Amino acid sequence: MTMTLATDGIRRFAATLAVAASVSLPALASPAEARVASADARESLRAEVPRLIDSTKLRKAKIAVSIRDDSGAEIVSVAGAEPMIPASNMKLLTTGLALETLGPEFSFRTRLVRDGARLTVIGDGDPAFGDPEMLSDLSIVDAEGRERRGLSIEDLLRMWVTAVKGAGMTSVDELVVDDRIFEREFVHPLWPKDQLNERYCAEVCGLNFHLNRLHFWPKPVPGAKADLSRIEPAVPFLEVRNRATSRLGKNDSNTIWFSRSVDRNDLTVSGNVKTAYEAPVPAVVHDMPSLFGEILANRLRGAGVPVARVRLAASDEAPPSGTPIGPVFRTPLAAAVDRANTDSDNLYAESLLKRAAAAAADRPGSWTLGTQVLEKRLREALGDDSSGFACSDGSGLSRGNRVTARGITKWIDRLMRQPGVTEVFLESLAVGGKSGTVRKRFREIAPDAATIRCKSGYINGVSTLSGVVEIGDRRWSFSVLGNELTEASAVSKLRQLQEQVVRAIVRAMNAGDHSASSMRSGSSGRR
Length: 527
Fold this sequence. Notes:
Blueprint: E1 4-5, H1 11-22, H2 39-55, E2 62-68, E3 74-78, H3 90-102, E4 107-115, E5 118-122, H4 132-136, E6 139-141, E7 147-149, H5 153-166, E8 174-178, E9 213-216, E10 231-232, E11 241-242, E12 257-259, E13 268-270, E14 281-284, H6 288-302, E15 310-312, E16 323-324, E17 329-332, H7 333-341, H8 346-361, H9 367-382, H10 405-415, H11 421-428, E18 430-431, E19 451-459, E20 462-471, E21 474-483, H12 490-510
Parallel strand pairs: 5-8, 8-15, 11-13
Antiparallel strand pairs: 1-6, 2-3, 2-21, 4-5, 4-16, 4-17, 6-7, 9-10, 9-14, 12-13, 18-19, 19-20, 20-21
């Protein structure tokens, strides 16, 4: 069966793109035309924010707040120029850089080409290639025109295997994986060494696949080791050491975990399986470009096409040439930005940083190059307000990042004044009470009173929230950053402060007209 990829079949993300293309968001008011709250409301907000900070009673914490109205003027600043660790608020900078550098119409492309008896997979740094969530929202169309929604990882691999056989290839001398869009530094040196096996520390490669991890569905086998036979994608050539038990006692539970060497895929599975896992358990792998080459070669061999050799492209090797085979897998930039911001996916953010750097400098993307490009853009965009910024990675996982609340709100305000960029950026942010990491926050704000589009952030001792309060055609940007949150319940108190500041902004924006209906009666504040 001949199958072609329906490149517009991303339901969740196509919806985002459709909004950006056909339903224009209200234009942000120009500085001369901005409808601002009354002077009294602005003064009240300036006075209220410090009181809210004091009410947290966090004496050891560092807290910074900045608020800008729809003219772009900063109307509130508390320690606004203080350098702060941003956690995942770093993604606001990274996604903005990607949109400005690559353009909102950009798409990642992952391709397969043939040159004689050689096949070359050409990576583009696409974090979505083989992402199970993205695959579930794609469609395939067979030769008779029948459409089927949802691809499995084996469907994806089969499409290229089928295309290779359809091209008349009966053997492959060499399968080359060209991942040179990025340098081969897969792990950031400042990421926490004791967490590198966690999903949020997945390696970042020029050829990403399946989020650079394997998915296991363990199930118990009474009196024996746990059953680990279901793995996606299947890797029969990879040895997995199974030390997982199947204890079913009253005090037993599911405690599966994985370990491996930093530079090898010598996976060991430990812990216990009491009940079969319904959701997959991820295991982060090393060097996905090489592993993907072996996976594709395995599928080709299984289909009767022997592969003599698998290798990575050499750094000094000429760019690949040849005839395209099979579908080109494309991911719209808007889809990747959405995953980075709404879902706070680190692999997506880091891939965006490296890909923007590769485009800006016309050489392989890296963390060093990416942060240089980002810091240069910040100096151009923020001027003196870029002082205090230091960029270490693209996701905020590194504790080497520094931003200022004032700079964050100025950056957001800048992105809200660029047609094309504005729509994609705003639609990528999580919406309070509805989506992403803030779907359970801000539920007390009536939907017809305000829309809270924002990005949250958390690492140990750090809690951040920055974004936009949107009421009609008015948008105020805000940033509430908390560092050194070491006191009891400090993170919870900082989150309460973030929500209190946002509610205060809603009141100020509504001052003088419908403020009485802004908040639902009887709301408890934070949930």
